[in-house]
Amino acid sequence: MAHQIAGPMPPSDFLEEFLPKTSSRMPRRSKSYFSSMSTAKREADMYPEFIKLVEESKLMGTKYKIVDTSNSSDRNLGGGWKIKPDPTMYRVEVDTELRATQWAKAEINYEFKLEESADPFNDPGPEDTRSTWRFTSTSIQQSKHRGQLLHYATEWLNRSHRCFAFTIFVAGRFMRFIRWDRAGAIVSERFDYLTDGRYFFEFLWRYTHLEEAERGFDTTVRLATAAEEKLGKAKLSEWAPEDKETPVFVFEVPAEDGDEKHEFIAWGSMAHPESLTGRCTRAYPVYEAKSNELYFLKDGWRAHELGAEADILRDLCAHKVPNIPEFFCGGDIEQEHHATLTDLFVPIEEPRRLQQPQKPATDTPTDPPPVIPVIDPSKPRPVHLLPYPPRRSSPWLCGRRWSSITRRIHHRFVVRFIGKPLSSFSLSKLLLKYVADAFKAHEKAYKECGYIHRDISARNILIHKDGRGILNDWDLAKKESELQQCRRHEKTGTWQFMSCLLLMDHHPVHTIQDDMESFVYVVLYHGLRYLSHNKPKKTLSIMRDIFDYEEYDVDGERTGGSHKKAMIRSFAILEEDFHLDSKPLDQWLRKMFKMLREWIEFVTPTVEEVDIFGDDDKSDKPSVPTPTLSPHLSKTSVDLSDHTKMAEIFAKALDRGIWPENDAAVDSFPYLKAQERSSVKRALEEGQTASRHGGSGNRSSSKKSRTEKAPISSGPSMGLRQSTSHGRR
Fold first, then answer.
1. Which residue has the higher pLDDT, 81 or 222?
2. pLDDT exceeding 70 applies to what percent of the chain?
3. What number is the average pLDDT over the span 680-693?
4. pLDDT at 367
5. Cα of 14 vs its chain's centroid, Å
6. Which has more pLDDT, 613 or 3?
7. Does residue 301 contact residue 309 with C-beta atoms inside 8 Å?
8. 3-state secondary structure 116-129
9. DSSP letter string over 606-622?
10. SS3 718
11. Where are the annotated segments for Disordered (predicted)?
12. For residue 81, with 0-12 CB atoms within 10 Å meaning exposed, 13-18 middle and 19 or more buried, which class applies?
């Protein structure tokens, strides 16, 4: 995420922006107070000397301590992680005798390198042009060090309830301050703390006089009391985590009437973030003692330019859209520190206005929607976008392309629904039925409210206990009328299930046809992975070729889709003799492929050859492409122009097919999820997340940061995404 790191901010500006002054008088210390640090011959020698000097300086007051954590890993991380940070600052009441490293309680992370050359950042000189200067170093060793910083920050923010955090980085005689949040990081200029440590003195003194929220902690989450812990573990035992010592937390969520707040007890999570930036979703089954009810809580950082998911669900429920989660309460956390700041220091990218798309012909309603609890239409707040806050002055900023830094707002809400993953289907017919239910939700949301979901994926279709399929995760949804304005780098969805033309950058905004194509990939994914077919030995390679295929252009932009397009047009990759043992499902797929093929040929017609010389001799003429038809133009003769035909095929397959009676889901390769976790861990340890594309702050990696790519080996996981190496909108 080198393209999400902004710097170098002068240390004086860093202090003024992020650490409010205190009225308490700071102890006086010599500017060269830390000069004895220069005698260290090994990195390990730096820790005890630094800790001793800080403690003797009295700059932390009496409420904080620094502990050498370089030989201790946090056993609560799980998954085989062995993260041993350098000295870490804690409150004095934190017991570190048996467990020195505790990310959930860490106040400041220190990272030391003996050599100045280990600094992964390059400050420009006074004569250098900052707009073209590469602030993030690209050497292998420096990129590895930056990867280590990112690795630690990622685990820190993801294993604690924080809005932001600070790291102090030391390379030889130089020190930098770093502030991390869900939009990226601000890095200070380096300064020689051995000859002049005043910036560091000021940092420590100010930090240790801040309130908990000002230090980055999320004060809307707290540890449960003993009584709450006992109650929570009893009520949430069905979703108990593997580690029964996992702490029980209490989340505060605004009530709908605005006069009070709900408190929900959470134990094991169904999803937790694995990236530093992006939505960073956490999801929990929760219990409310007041109502004695179970609910589902979703917590994350929404993109500023997207509507709040809570508002979208209110709107959908008010319009009686079927087969969606029933909204209960919540929304943006409207408290200070619950919005990112990194984005305020980079230029905002103006939206590109697109031609107003022509709305397809009105869909024909199918079956009447099932009855769901009605929300008073007068109650939901309007779905709207907040204005951007004023930009902060940043003449120090290096680089010129910052499209990957996105303003994010902390968003938390609760629904009356805890679903099961689609992969737990018990019959192939039920698989298609659940997807058909989700398709109906998509159809009604579009027809009644104008929403396009924009993230149809395996994890976003869940199974309700009453037997319905539920279309979940509406955080990327937008009204079609809003899509005329989009950020240049906007490409949304979960990579494996995105339409081939979106992946190929054929058109700039998401359409209902893109979503409908994604429904087909959800069924194909589950058919290949969980059902019997005639290509069992090739399953893994087929799935990787279809769902994970990607390539990068000369600008480092990620594209794909050509394999999917070839599969739709000619059964490439699957091969013509491919078939699922479930004949009705196989026939459904073939009908869908025919519809997709017709649509692709409609919006990407064959190039016509034009004789630019006006010569009758056709043997040596070049081909000149004719204009491509807009994907927004609809023709009633094209089956995929609206939901109608696809809904009919769903209904016919479910009503008339002779379905197998004993083909429950069986995972073809359940072992791969553990391998995926190991590969992510290995990549982080090697610094690959920082250096894969050279780490340039000037290179646009927006397509990578805007779309999620959870490889097929991770599979669906309780209907909520777990980002791997990066977040996406």
1. 222
2. 79
3. 37
4. 39
5. 27
6. 3
7. no
8. HHHCCECCCCCCCC
9. PPPP--TT--S--TTPP
10. coil
11. 614-638, 677-729
12. middle
- Range of lowest pLDDT (64-78, 427-441, 587-601, 701-715): 701-715
Tokens matching residue 238: 């069905």
223 phi, psi to nearest 5 deg? -70, 140
According to DSSP, the β-strands at 5-9 and 184-188 are: parallel
Distance, in Å, from the CA atom of 301 to the CA atom of 162, rounded to the nearest integer, reads 12
Question: Are the C-beta atoms of residues 613 and 621 closer than 8 Å to each other?
Answer: yes
SS3 letters across 135-175: CECCCHHHHHHHHHHHHHHHHHHHCCCECCEEEEEEECCEE
Pairing of strands 420-421, 461-463: antiparallel
Nearest to 457 by CA among 511, 518, 510: 518
Interhelix angle for 428-444 vs 644-656, to 10°? 150
Q: Which amino acid is at 78?
A: G
Q: 374 or 225, which is more confident? A: 225
Q: Packing angle between helix 198-207 and helix 43-57, nearest 10 degrees?
A: 60
CA distance 520 to 513: 11
Q: Name residue 296's amino acid.
A: F
H-state helical runs in 498-643: 500-503, 512-530, 539-543, 562-570, 583-603
Strand pairing report for 469-471 and 461-463: antiparallel
* First and final C-alpha spacing in the chain: 15
Predicted pLDDT at 361:
38
What three-state secondary structure class fits 495? Answer: helix
Which pLDDT score, from 0 to 100, does residue 356 have? Answer: 40
The radius of gyration of the chain's CA atoms, rounded to the nearest angstrom, is 27
Tokens for 1?
Answer: 């995420």
Question: Residue 244: is it exposed, middle or buried by C-beta count within 10 angstroms (0-12/13-18/19+)?
Answer: exposed
Q: How many CA atoms lie within 13 A of 51 on its CB side?
A: 20
SS3 label, residue 398: coil
- What is the rounded average pLDDT for all residues in the chain? 84
Output the six-digit token pair for 575. Answer: 């091969």
Task: Report the alpha-carbon distance of residue 707 to residue 494 in Å, rounded.
Answer: 6
* C-alpha to C-alpha distances, 636 to 360, 439, 581, 588, 644, nearest whole angstrom: 8, 20, 34, 21, 10
Q: How far, CA to CA in Å, does 507 sit from each of 12, 490, 501, 567?
A: 46, 11, 7, 20
Residue appearing with tokens 């081939």? 500
Cα(127)–Cα(173) distance, integer angstroms: 24
Residue type, 243: D
Number of other CB atoms surrounding residue 703 within 10 Å: 25
**Structure-token pair, residue 469:** 């399929």
**Would you say 1 and 727 are in contact if contact means Cβ atoms under 8 Å apart?**
no
Say which residue the tokens 């058919």 belong to: 527
Helices (H) and strands (E) counted in the chain, each on its own, are 16, 24
Confidence of residue 669 (pLDDT cuts 50, 70, 90): confident
**Quick one: pLDDT at residue 726?**
34
Q: pLDDT for 586-605, tens place per residue?
A: 999 999 999 999 999 998 87
Q: Identify the helix (H) or strand (E) that includes residue 325.
A: none
- Total residue length of the chain: 729
- By the 8 A CB rule, do 143 and 127 touch? no
Structure tokens at 397: 């900023």
Beta carbons within 10 angstroms of residue 541's beta carbon: 11
Whether the per-residue pLDDT at 346 is higher than 90: the answer is yes
Structural contact between residues 471 and 461, judged by C-beta atoms closer than 8 angstroms:
yes
Structural domains of the chain in order of their starting residue, each with its CATH number? 2-215 (3.90.1570), 423-668 (1.10.510)
DSSP for 249-305, written as a single string: EEEEEE-TTSS-EEEEEE-S-SB---SSSS---EEEEEEETTTTEEEEEEEEEEETT
Judged on CB neighbours under 10 Å (0-12, 13-18, 19+), 464 is: middle
In this structure, what are the phi and psi dihedrals at residue 702, rounded to the nearest 5 degrees?
-60, -35
DSSP-assigned letter for residue 387 = P
